[in-house]
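Chapter summary example.
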Amino acid sequence: MSRLTSDDSGASQLIGYVYTALISVLILSSMMLTSSTMLNGSVSNTAQEEAEQLALYFQLAVEDLLNTVREYPGSSPVMVLDTGIEAINHGIQYKVTGLTTGLKVTTIQPRGGSFEVNFPLAPATSIETTNSASLKSTTSYIVISYDDNLKVVKLTSG
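The structure predicted for these 158 residues follows.
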């Protein structure tokens, strides 16, 4: 009669397979965590850049309006900006808040962007947004006007 010999190679192959699977899961988890961290950082950098660009765009528009008022005292110039359409194309939502020294743009979607621009407002005393709160990018365009009686630059949704 022949004797059956014990062969442990099947058990060692199973243990090797389990170890390999565990190491693969750990490596994939690490890669997922790293890539999600990189994406979050990229989104916040993009939001910050968009906030800066929008704030500077608004600053240039307000400065043009104020230069017109300085050159033609008593005038009431009005500017219309189609920033809502541009924001939709870039996939960004923001709010603009008027200040006594300039304005502030904060991104709502994606979160993390905020930029404040300070510049001389003379002859105006401040920038006001609708309802003395903040103006959001949900409208298709924003109207910038100057009120000569109140000496205020007004940002309203159009």
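To summarize the output: The first helix runs from residue 9 to 71.
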